[in-house]
Amino acid sequence: MQDLAKKQGLTNRALAAAVDVNQGTVTRWVKGEAAPSPKYIARLAELLGVEASELYVVTETARNLAYYRILAGYSLAQLAPLIGTSPVHLGRMEAGRSSIPPQVRDKLKEHLNIDEDRLAKAIRRSQTRRRAPVARPLEPYEFVPAVQPTRRELIGA
């Protein structure tokens, strides 16, 4: 991002002003200490004259629904009403914990500007990246009564 800004003759201060954040935020982005939110990725890409995918680089195998949502410049809260669902439900779909109805699939393709094949792959990737269940002990905890020390042990003899 910094190289692209330099090519455009933009300092961190100018870049911050152009996307409406403070200079410290841009500095953290450049250092890799923070990442821009979806709306800023879209603004930055437009300002720097590049595709959002140049600023938000993800390997092919990690391109799930969240990736395409971010590239399109949407947060969960922004995209959810456009496709007729809640942000919580959309988050579950992105995490692979909820199925995606056909009418929602059609709206996702429209708003994310992707075809059916790319959407299907993104959904599969979302489903395979589910969180592992929390580990539980195999055996129930065993209650072991505490042994009371004898008087001699207390005195140290």
From TrEMBL:
GO cellular component, one term: cytosol
Domain HTH cro/C1-type, residue spans: 1-55, 65-119
Source domain of life: Bacteria
Pfam families: HTH_3 (PF01381)
One example GO MF annotation: DNA binding
Transmembrane segment boundaries: none
SMART domains in the record: HTH_XRE
Keywords, in A-Z order: DNA-binding
Matches recorded under Gene3D superfamilies: lambda repressor-like DNA-binding domains
Coiled-coil annotated spans: none
PANTHER family for the chain: HTH-TYPE TRANSCRIPTIONAL REGULATOR, METHYLPHOSPHONATE SYNTHASE
Protein name per the record: HTH cro/C1-type domain-containing protein
Origin species: Mycolicibacterium obuense
